[in-house]
Amino acid sequence: MSRKYELRLESHELDTLHIKVCRVLREAILRGHFQPGERLVQEELASSLGVSRMPVREALRKLETEGLVIIEPHRGAIVKSLSVEDIQEIYGLRAQFERMAVEMSVEHMSQDDIQQLEELVVAMEQSTDSTVFIECNIEFHRLLISRCTWKRLVTFIETLWNGFPQQTPQMLSDQTEKSNKEHRQILDAIKNGDAAEAGRLVHGHIKRTGDNLVKSLQESLQ
């Protein structure tokens, strides 16, 4: 296990212990503090976090469902590397599921919701700070599906979000400019009350991002 990164639980968080552990480990994996193929030893993680093995074991099982680790017999949890097929699967599912969720969500959005979306779009258009852009982008997509009444669908989408770092696409060249244009188009469709068009635009936005990620990964492997 990597020794350079300090794992730390936030004492003020209200989530159950294994959810706190899961959040810390997920962030460490997505930020590259644990490398693909690295073995995550329950005893070492528990010692670093100051918890028993049980919440660590439960957290690793959840991370397995998110596609971030593989639990192998007699070896334990191994950090999984993302392949072209993983990205195609994640973004293909996201495009379909988020289209459905947005179409349902738009029907129940309030003027306050739309105003928040407007503020996020403006913040992204004006931002010169990548961290601010990423935070606004994540909140924009979260708010898009926040009024969806199919809670299982929302849970599926959140699992897909957790399985891939949402900040990664913004590191691709020209991604920010294209995303800003597409976000504005999605917002305009919502303002017009056109749920089907908003869903179609979200589908295209996510699919394009996934296609660009696949292309970038394939080029890096050549």
Automatic annotation (TrEMBL):
What sections of the protein cross the membrane?
Answer: none
Question: InterPro entries in the record, alphabetically?
Answer: AsnC-type_HTH_dom (IPR000485), GntR_C (IPR011711), TF_FadR/GntR_C (IPR008920), Tscrpt_reg_HTH_GntR (IPR000524), WH-like_DNA-bd_sf (IPR036388), WH_DNA-bd_sf (IPR036390)
Task: Report the residue ranges that make up the HTH gntR-type domain in this protein.
Answer: 15-82
Keyword annotations: DNA-binding, Transcription, Transcription regulation
GO MF assignments: DNA-binding transcription factor activity; sequence-specific DNA binding
> In its keyword annotation, does this UniProt entry include Plastid?
no
Matching Pfam families: FCD, GntR
- What is the superkingdom listed in this entry's lineage? Bacteria
Q: What is this protein called?
A: GntR family transcriptional regulator
Q: Please give the organism.
A: Brevibacillus nitrificans
